[in-house]
Amino acid sequence: MNHLPQQQIIGIGEVLWDMLPEGNVLGGAPANFVYNISQFGLPAKLVSAIGDDQLGRLAAETLAQRRIDTVMATVSRPTGTVEVKLADEGIPSYDIKEHAAWDFIPLDKKLLELARTTTVACFGSLAQRSQVSRDTINMFLDTMPDGHGRIKVFDINLRQGFFSKEIIEQSLTRCNMLKINDEELAEVSRMLGLPQSGTEEICRRLMSEYIIDCVILTCGTKGSHVFGRSSSSFLPTPEVTVADTVGAGDSFTAAFIASLLRGKSIREAHRRAVEVSAYVCSCPGAMNILPENLIK
To answer: Please, are residues 59 and 26 in contact by the beta-carbon 8 Å criterion?
Structure first.
C-alpha cells in the first residue's frame, strides 16, 4: 500500500442530512470520509446522489463551501435525511429515511472512467440497501484496478437492519481492507457462522477467507486494533470530553489511509487515526476543521 504517483481517492455511497437536536448537519459516511481525507491535502471525490429539492440544493452548496469535490447526480427522489438522537456519552441512534436520492446512484460511462483511475475507494453497507446503488457500487469496485497500492476499504456500517448476509459477503470479497467495530464484528461473525473465538482470531479468519490485507477493529472506549498480514497494533482510546461520536469512525478511516499513502507504518497510521477520531469526538457533528498538528 505504498504511495502511487497520482492518487484518486473516492468515497461512494450516501450523502444525507443528520437531523440533530441542535440543527441539521450534512453527513453520511462517504461524505465524512472525503471531507476528512481532503484535509490531508489528498485529492478526493464524493460519489453520491441528491434530490431536486431544497435540501439537495443546500447539500450541494454546503459541499462546495467545504471544498468537497463531487460526482453528484440529481435524481427524482428526496435528498436523504436521518433523525439522530444522542444517548448518554453522545452515542447516536439513527432513523434513516428510506427511498432517498442516495439509494439511486446512477451508473454511467463517466463513473466507470473514474473507477479506472481510482487508487482508493471507501464504501459501506448502508448505501447498498437498494439494488440500484448496490449495483453501481459493485460495478465501480469491479472496474477499479486491483494490485499494488490500490485500496478498497469496506467501512461496514450496520444500521436499522439495512444489511444482509449477501451484501456483507459480496463486499468482503471486493475489499482488501475492512473497518469494523466490535458490535458489528459480533453480528458479522454470527451471520457468517464463524467460530465465536477471540476478536483477533475472528478478524484473522475474515482476512484468510476473504483475502483481506488489513482489518481495523474499533472498540469504543476500550481501544482499537489494526491487524495486518505480518503485524498488529493496539492503542487505547484517549480520554476526551465527548460532544458526540457522529463521524468519528469515518475520520479514523480517513486519517489511517492518508497516513498509509504518505508512507507511514501501520502503527504510525493507527496512532494518527486515533488522535484524529478523538478530536472529532470532542467536537459537535462529523465535519470539523482538523488542527494543523493532526494533518501535517
So the answer is: yes
Question: One-letter amino acid identity for 251?
Answer: S
Q: Using alpha carbons, select from 147, 153, 198 the residue that is nearest to residue 174.
A: 153
Partners of residue 73 on adjacent β-strands: 49
At 193 the three-state DSSP class reads coil
Rounded distance between C-alpha atoms, residue 27 and residue 88, angstroms: 21
Q: Is 75 helix (H, G, I), strand (E, B) or coil?
A: strand
Which pLDDT tens digit goes with each residue over 226-253?
999 988 999 999 999 988 787 899 999 9
Domains of the chain and CATH, by start: 9-295 (3.40.1190.20)
d(CA 125, CA 112): 20
The C-alpha atoms of residue 146 and residue 155 are separated, in whole angstroms, by 18
Prediction pTM value? 0.92
pLDDT at 89: 64
Question: Residue for cell digits 453522545?
Answer: 90
